[in-house]
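dumping this here so i dont lose it
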């Protein structure tokens, strides 16, 4: 059997400053920068992963700008995505409460049923935490998402979060 290769577009959504760019940067380049210019428009980064001996995935991660205020621009950004990563910051309750609206925004364009992951980021800031693991987990269950907790700064949980989404996507194409 020959090797098969998939190219998947995955969008990374969430409020400004929750760590979207940092997560993508860590996952694709193993680096963390303390200072980022706010994303303008969208960044996209490529990650190539062998999910099994016969399966290579090229994941193109689109990291939306928090300031993408225009529905028409967001729609272009979402088009042809096969999966989504929703991110909130555990020290910012408002970013957690905003997740439903991000999900709805994407659903309006893609329809229901796309595989997605909820990421609770910045767990290194434990003393400033405003959202519990239970709340995060419950939200993910309600919205039909996987759930992972990460620190893009320390790298904790980042690979797991993305890898499990890719495996879920692979499951979909098998059937
Ligand atoms: P965004 O792309 O969602 O807007 P960024 O978010 O990736 O630009 O990150 C926003 C800020 O949060 C950055 O700091 C970044 O360094 C910080 N950050 C991202 N992830 C983590 C994390 O896991 N832990 C901690 N402690 N900080 C994180 P600045 O200072 O540039 O605003
Ligand atoms: Mg950004």
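and the seq i came up w/
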């Amino acid at each position: 059997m020959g090797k098969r290769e998939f190219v998947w577009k995955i969008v990374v959504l969430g409020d400004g400053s929750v760590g979207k760019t940092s997560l993508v940067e860590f996952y694709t380049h193993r680096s963390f920068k303390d200072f980022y210019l706010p994303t303008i428009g969208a960044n996209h980064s490529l990650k190539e992963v062998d999910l099994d001996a016969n399966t290579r995935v090229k994941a193109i991660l689109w990291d939306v700008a928090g300031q993408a205020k225009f529905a028409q621009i967001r729609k272009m950004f979402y088009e042809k995505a096969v999966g989504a990563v929703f991110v909130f910051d555990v020290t910012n309750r408002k970013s957690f409460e905003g997740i439903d609206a991000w999900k709805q925004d994407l659903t309006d364009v893609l329809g229901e049923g796309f595989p997605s992951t909820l990421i609770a980021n910045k767990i290194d800031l434990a003393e400033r935490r405003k959202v519990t693991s239970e709340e995060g987990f419950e939200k993910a269950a309600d919205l039909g998402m996987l759930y992972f907790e990460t620190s893009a700064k320390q790298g904790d949980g980042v690979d797991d979060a993305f890898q499990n989404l890719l495996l879920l996507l692979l499951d979909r194409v098998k059937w």
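The two ends are 18 Å apart (CA to CA).
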